[in-house]
Amino acid sequence: MEETSNRYRIEAPAVLLVGKTGNVLPPTFSMMPGKNSKKATLGNSLLGSEEVFEASNDPNSVTKFARAEKLTIDGRPYNLVDTPGVFDTVTPGPQTLAEIARVIGECSYGIQAIIFVLGMHAFSRLVQLPSSR
């Protein structure tokens, strides 16, 4: 297992990116050409970069360990944290949840926000329900 200090240091309030592995939006909604909209892609968009968090079109999680990067919003420092995807088909659930719990425990400056990244398909049934009444 790689050392925490080699992956990140959380030195400001954290903004966590949490979501299901392989959560994608239709290509017309993609924030960055050639990449599906997942947690890493959203994080890269917020940071103004395509290369900070590893993003791929693979339905399996490429993020095995949480990673944090510095983010400034209105002059205030934050750490944007990309977490491993939940419900990964390759990495066991308890291992993923333990990594997320570990990184939460390292947020000594607190957690400012948790952003749940969901694909459009997660809402399609909810949107259809009211119209069928």
From TrEMBL:
<dbReference type="GO" id="GO:0005525">
    <property type="term" value="F:GTP binding"/>
</dbReference>
<keyword id="KW-0547">Nucleotide-binding</keyword>
<dbReference type="InterPro" id="IPR027417">
    <property type="entry name" value="P-loop_NTPase"/>
</dbReference>
<dbReference type="InterPro" id="IPR045058">
    <property type="entry name" value="GIMA/IAN/Toc"/>
</dbReference>
<dbReference type="Pfam" id="PF04548">
    <property type="entry name" value="AIG1"/>
</dbReference>
<protein>
    <recommendedName>
        <fullName>AIG1-type G domain-containing protein</fullName>
    </recommendedName>
</protein>
<keyword id="KW-0342">GTP-binding</keyword>
<feature type="domain" description="AIG1-type G">
    <location>
        <begin position="39"/>
        <end position="124"/>
    </location>
</feature>
<dbReference type="InterPro" id="IPR006703">
    <property type="entry name" value="G_AIG1"/>
</dbReference>
